[in-house]
Design goal:
The protein is of the alpha/beta class and 249 residues long. It has a single domain, classed as Vaccinia Virus protein VP39 (Rossmann fold, 3-Layer(aba) Sandwich). Helix content is 26%, strand content 32%. The protein is built from 7 helices and 14 strands. Strands 4, 5, 6, 7, 8, 9, 10, 11 and 12 form a 9-stranded mixed sheet that branches. It has a 3-stranded antiparallel sheet with strand order 1-2-3. β2 and β3 form a beta hairpin. The longest helix is centred in the middle third of the chain and has 13 residues. The protein is globular and about 40 Å long.
Length: 249
């Protein structure tokens, strides 16, 4: 991701991905996407012709990256907050992806009012990470709702994914490693069985920071543990690892 490319007003910046080939407008203050979104967009593996649902799409960055990486998939980006939904819609238009990404404003806790059941092959979700009452809640309402379980908790996110997925469809989540048990419990509760799991570390020798999990609706119990993923080369060298660098190329 580059530094700001365009300053359209005092509240919005336009940042670039893939050496300027994608532009993502996002708030200067409040909720801004991070490496988590980039990690999840590359962890998910849509097959050709897949119908993909991006739950809690924010400004649409995961949808943009996936559409760029896989030009033969169709994506629906669902976002609750009006300001982020408008940014998501604008980003889709500016990147000329209207024919491949549609945006919907609505509450993932009520998927029946927005989407057809069992109509997606893949769901991706970067859910709120923290319980209400844990840690400092950001005063910006957008960031608070994106980072804390104010509008939806992990169980509700998983429930929405299960509702939207066809039988044997796949869901990909990223979540804090310290809350990994909550994610795995919710997945199993809604018949989404974990099939691939990867731990993300800031650098070699650090404790696990994030979990990326792919689960299959109605799948069996076999689970593949992938090699560790490092964001940076070392603790004292904040250069991206070769694997992380490749995600921006």
């Amino acid at each position: 991701m580059s530094k700001d490319l365009v300053v359209e007003d005092s509240a919005i910046s336009a940042d670039t991905l893939f050496n300027g080939r994608l532009i993502c407008r996002q708030p200067r203050r409040g909720y801004r996407f991070s490496v988590d979104a980039v990690l999840l967009a590359n962890f998910a593996r849509p097959q050709a012709g897949s119908r993909v649902l991006d739950l809690g799409a924010g400004c649409g960055v995961i949808s943009l990256i996936m559409a760029w990486r896989s030009p033969d998939i169709a994506i629906t980006a669902l976002e609750l907050q009006p300001s982020l939904f408008e940014l998501c819609r604008s980003n889709i238009e500016r990147n000329r992806l209207v024919s491949r990404i549609r945006s919907i404003q609505g509450d993932l806790r009520r998927p029946d009012s927005l989407l057809k059941a069992a109509s997606f092959d893949l769901v991706v979700c970067n859910p709120p990470y923290y319980k209400v009452g844990s840690g400092r809640i950001n005063p910006a309402s957008e960031q608070a709702a994106a980072r804390h379980e104010i509008t939806a908790d992990i169980n509700q996110c998983v429930q929405a994914a299960a509702w939207a997925l066809r039988s044997h469809g796949r869901a990909a989540f990223i979540f804090p490693a310290q809350r990994g048990a909550a994610l795995l419990t919710a997945l199993h509760r809604h018949r989404l069985e974990a099939k691939r799991l990867q731990v993300v570390y800031s650098f070699p020798g650090a404790d696990g920071r994030l979990l990326m999990v792919e689960a299959v609706k109605g799948g069996g119990e076999e689970l593949r543990i992938l090699p560790p993923f490092y964001i940076y080369k070392a603790a004292d060298n904040r250069q991206y690892s070769p694997e992380m660098t490749a995600f921006f190329a």
